[in-house]
Amino acid sequence: MAILNIQVGKFIDAENFINSLKAKNLNSYNYLNGIKEKKKNNYKTAEIFFKKIEKTDKLYIDSIKKISEIKIQKKDYEELKRFFKSEHEAIKNNKNLEIKLILLETEIFFTEKKYQHSMKRIDFGLDKYNNNKSFLYTRALVAEQIGRLDILENDLKKLISIDPSNAQALNALGYTWANKNINLKDANSYIDKALLLEPNDAAILDSKGWVLYRMGEYLKAENYFIKALKFSEDSEIVSHYVKLLLKLKKVEKANKIYLKYLEINPEDKKLIEIKKILNEI
Q1: Is the pLDDT of residue 12 over 80?
Q2: CA distance 205 to 236
Q3: What's the rounded Cα separation, in Å, for the pair 233 and 264?
Q4: Is 102 within 8 Å of 134 (Cβ atoms)?
Q5: DSSP character for 113?
Q6: Which bin fits 198, alpha (ψ -120 to 50), beta or left (φ > 0)?
Q7: Tell me, what DSSP letter sits at residue 28?
Q8: Burial (CB count <10 Å: 0-12, 13-18, 19+), residue 126
């Protein structure tokens, strides 16, 4: 309730509830005060509240996310690095917390497209916690962004050997190959294994359609894209489906699909790319 009141600017109502927590749950009291001050653009005060949260509390990682958001608003990435370094020093003897913090730092810098720093941190994580499954998967994602297909393949293959039922890893490797138009037979095999594990997963259904597209199996591919779009309106799926429809000479249907999803998400970059393709026809 307090967060809803903060979101709509009802700060007095929020404060009444927050103040009632001070004697009962000091960490929640500090966290919600941090949220309130951040919403009011009082960033220094917000950070003070967030930093008061105990590192053993469940809200600790969320508080680190909020402090990161404040520093990212100022584009102060060096300060953000120093902040994470100090937090790592403080919790380095807590394995579970350190793993969460390494992943969080990697993901935050990844989102900001600071891929070299993301790779540095996830490398550190894997050096310390060898074969950690979350680290292997995350490093594969980072490796793709810096053009290190060798690292991506090695990490995903290692993850699959450790966890053969990891549908996410099976799909990631298969889709990467399909997207690069290489190793298509193996890509199809990995995606099929993922699909058996998660038959209604939109991303995996899209991967199956895409690998069939790459293999020239256009008619077979269409059903997978149609099914994927029942579970997700992701523009990547829309893009793949439109490209397939154009291969099948279904230009009118391609335009119809494009316009339908453009109305839902008019600023999407992938949909804008589709428009360029359609305009060339």
Answers
A1: no
A2: 12
A3: 9
A4: no
A5: T
A6: beta
A7: H
A8: middle
At residue 1, the pLDDT reads 65
| Burial class of 1 by CB neighbour count within 10 A (0 to 12, 13 to 18, 19+) | exposed
Closest listed residue to residue 271, CA positions, set 58, 263, 219, 43: 263
Copy the structure tokens of residue 172. Answer: 């990631």
What is the secondary structure of 47-62 as a DSSP string?
HHHHHTS-TTSTTHHH
Task: Note the pTM of the prediction, 2 decimals.
Answer: 0.89
* Cα–Cα distance measured from residue 104 to residue 220, given in angstroms and rounded to the nearest whole number: 40
Distance CA 254, CA 257 (A): 5
pLDDT in tens, 156-181: 999 999 999 999 999 999 999 999 99
- 249 φ/ψ angles, rounded to the nearest 5 degrees: 65, 25
Q: Which amino acid is at 163?
A: D
- In 40-183, which residue ranges form alpha helices assigned H by DSSP? 43-51, 60-73, 77-91, 95-111, 115-128, 133-145, 149-162, 167-180
Residue with token string 């060798």: 150
